[in-house]
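I'll show a sample.
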Amino acid sequence: MLKNCYIFSIVLIVFSSLLPAFADPASQEHNFPDGYQRFTDNSPLHHNQWELYIYRPVNSDKMNITRCWLKLEDTDGNDVTYTACKATYYFPDQVVKDPKEGLPYFSSIFHHTGPRTVYKYQRTYYLDGGMVMHLTLKPGKYKISFYTPEDQHFFVKTQNKEWTSNIFEYETQNPTKVIFVSPIANENGFYTGGWHISGYAPEFFKFTKPKQ
């Protein structure tokens, strides 16, 4: 009888030690640094209707450090960039490591629970190459554009003094939640000085293909 109890106790201990291996990974706790969250297959994938992501994919080094600034207008043409929305930004190519497991995780570009560091803008809303801007907008219709002043495109010289973009009309109830910003180039591939906003991702091969 004692022998059977002893065997049962050993089996119970071994089985208990194996339980974590079969547990749901999404339910296990991970000690990520502050500001990070692990992205799992069970994470909810949804956005509220006031969120908009604006992604500017990477280009050449000189183009990446050439900033473009957001301009948000209402239907009457009033500049509401800093009154109708709040903005944060992050870098989707950042790699996050779980300090407990020492495993790297690549940040999800547009998922709100992706493991990433989110930064607050200090003054103005801008994009560098490789940045994602996350806007929380008041409900309504807007005209979105980007520009680069003449004194801010130091390393990429063009004939255009101030770089501007097309106007992208957007409504918060629109199902489109991600738009893209890319530079404009001529048929020979040289930058002409300007930006293009689209709901479609630009072609990509090593660098983002400019809008021609």
